[in-house]
Amino acid sequence: MKAVTLNNITKTYNKGTVLAVDNLSFEVEKGELFGLIGPDGAGKSTIFRLLTTLLLADSGTATVDGLDIVKDFKTIRKKVGYMPGKFSLYQDLTVEENLNFFASIFGTTIHENYELIKDIYVQIEPFKTRRAGKLSGGMKQKLALSCALIHKPSVLFLDEPTTGVDTVSRKEFWQMLKRLKEQGITILVSTPYMDEANLCDRIALMQSGKILSIDTPANITKAYDGKLYAIRSSSMHKLLIELRNYEFTESCFAFGEYLHITFKKDHIDHTNALLSYLKHNGHTNLELKTIEPSIEDCFIQLLKQ
Amino acid sequence: MKQLFIFVRKEFYHVFRDRKTLLMLFGLPIAQIVLFGFALTTEIKNAKIVVADYSKDIVSKQIIDKIDASRYFDIEKSLMSHDQIEAAFKEGKIKMAVIFPENFNKNLLHTNKAQIQVIADASDLNTAVTLTNYISSIIGDYQQQMVKNVVLPYRIVPEIRMLYNPQLKGEHTFIPGMMAMIMMLVCVMMTAISIVKEKELGTMEILLVSPFKPLMVILSKFVPYLIISLVNVTSILLLSWIFLHLPIKGSILLLYAVSLLFIITSLAIGLLISIVSQSQQSAMFGSLMATMLPTLLLSGFMFPIENMPLPLQIISNVVPSKWFYIIVKDIMIKGSGFGAIWKETLILVGMTVFLLIISLKKFKIRLE
């Protein structure tokens, strides 16, 4: 039995005028850490809300833990853990009160499932008498995860859990997810950060309610079509404009301190010609190298197709 | 059951940790009592008047003494010319002038008829009418004393008794009205805001994706405001008893039972508002529109419904506070039992059941 299945799910808002999820089908294995990667408005939150039975699809069917999301919504609500994107806990309750409250809502106690949240909760336990509104972003997120985990869900839905959280906390957070996965919990996580994609077992790259590609991160980068180069010079802005106008350029975009560039297929190696062309145009400190494509490069390529 | 207790406790945390709301919840009844009880009274005490006595005989003296002795009037100056009186009116110093013409007593004895001129400042209509009524009754009183021993051939004397409120105290009408208003405000607004707040915070999503039943969410939201409202009812009754000397003539138990019913009506309205509004502001605005205005204008507490145009009279029937106001007035002031108010109570029960059914049916177990 799959942890999650979607069959031709379509969801629109505003009486059919806004298409959020477009005839989508995919499956998530049990015990998998599955990532939905895509920019804002790709339809990630809608999928989560459909699967957590908060929304009804226009057409199509879906199951969570083998249960139908429409017919068995009451049972699903007992079994899943959900951390909404805009989840902000009760600001005027303390850390402990928040956790206690959510534990009892799910018919359990902190004590009963303490093992499950221990790793996460020990980090915020020193602040347990502090009000949630006074916590830092990273701590809030840990508390929210603890609250979503307290009833030992079989499937955990985390909607953009790392948005608005600092880099260190984000790293810690993904380590926590790894450990939870080891305990056999299926985790669906959505994120707009492409660099987090590599931390998932499998990912679905999404755009405008559609899945562009769904596979392991390694397979997705392997499927990258063509050769990718990184280039930089002392005047990056000029370089970007010139490269975009260069006749053999297929795509060129800024990526950190480099520009990522691909060339049209019929010209296999013209790096030397390009370098001399750029030198002629007055660029200094030129550096050009072949690189392994990242998920983001794949995403951009998929968008163009 | 334990879940419900913990949820209710959480709601109380919200209430007690928000100082401003807390102050509003419990300060409101006190502020209202002070405002309506002392500042905004419709009764007129110690109105400043002048008396011009051109006759200076025994009868006019006695009448002036009687006026002076009443707690309604303060006689400013005893003698003024007509011009002076007019000037005093213009300056707004006096509310009324009472003028005895020359030969007042003589005329009374010889022609059996004498006139007193009463001039009132009608720029404030209500005050003018009330004051002239007071003065007429004082003069009427005196006249009755005078003719006690004389047998007149034809006399019709209206024996007026102001039932239930012989001293014509304003408190009798405003305490029941205020109870309706405060309960409406607290229950409707607080319930609506606290539910919409959960929507805004995103915690409602979690509550929905949990085994906790939506019905229990509603119930947990009701309990704290129900208790707070009962505390408010008690404080209103105590305050009005201690400071305004307003006794409760009927059964206190019945009064509380009806209040409980009305609180539930208000909670149901609050729930209904929370379902249709998406932000705390719109919930607040909706609550004010749905409670304050109808309660002030159409419950009969401020303006008598009998005097309204027919369409408004008909509309007033769907305002729950109108029925509650009638019931509380009957119990508190007339001392009526259940037998006298069962019709109004039944209407209120019907409204409550209707509102509860609608709002429970409309309560969304999903996000849309």
TrEMBL record, chain A:
Q: Which UniProt keywords apply?
A: ATP-binding, Nodulation, Nucleotide-binding, Transport
Please provide, alphabetically and separated by semicolons, the GO molecular function terms listed in this UniProt record: ATP binding; ATP hydrolysis activity
The protein's matches in InterPro entries, at most eight in alphabetical order, are given as: AAA+_ATPase, ABC_transporter-like_ATP-bd, ABC_transporter-like_CS, ABC_transporter_ATP-binding, P-loop_NTPase
PROSITE patterns (alphabetical): ABC_TRANSPORTER_1, ABC_TRANSPORTER_2
Q: Does the keyword DNA-binding apply?
A: no
ABC transporter domain mapped to chain residues: 4-233
Which SUPFAM superfamilies would you find in this protein's record? P-loop containing nucleoside triphosphate hydrolases (SSF52540)
**Can you tell me which family this protein belongs to?**
Belongs to the ABC transporter superfamily.
Task: From the Swiss-Prot or TrEMBL record, give the protein name.
Answer: ABC-type multidrug transport system, ATPase component
Species of origin: Solitalea koreensis
TrEMBL record, chain B:
Provide the ABC transmembrane type-2 domain boundaries: 132-366
Q: Which GO terms describe its cellular component?
A: ATP-binding cassette (ABC) transporter complex
Location of this chain's protein in the cell? Cell membrane
**One Gene Ontology term of the molecular function aspect:** ABC-type transporter activity
Keyword tags: Cell membrane, Membrane, Transmembrane, Transmembrane helix, Transport
| Transmembrane parts of this sequence | 21-40, 174-196, 222-246, 252-276, 283-303, 340-360
Superkingdom assignment: Bacteria
Q: How does it sit in the membrane?
A: Multi-pass membrane protein
Any one Pfam family here would be ABC2_membrane_3
Please give the family membership noted in the entry. Belongs to the ABC-2 integral membrane protein family.
Name this protein carries in UniProt: Transport permease protein
Please report the organism this UniProt entry assigns to the protein.
Solitalea koreensis
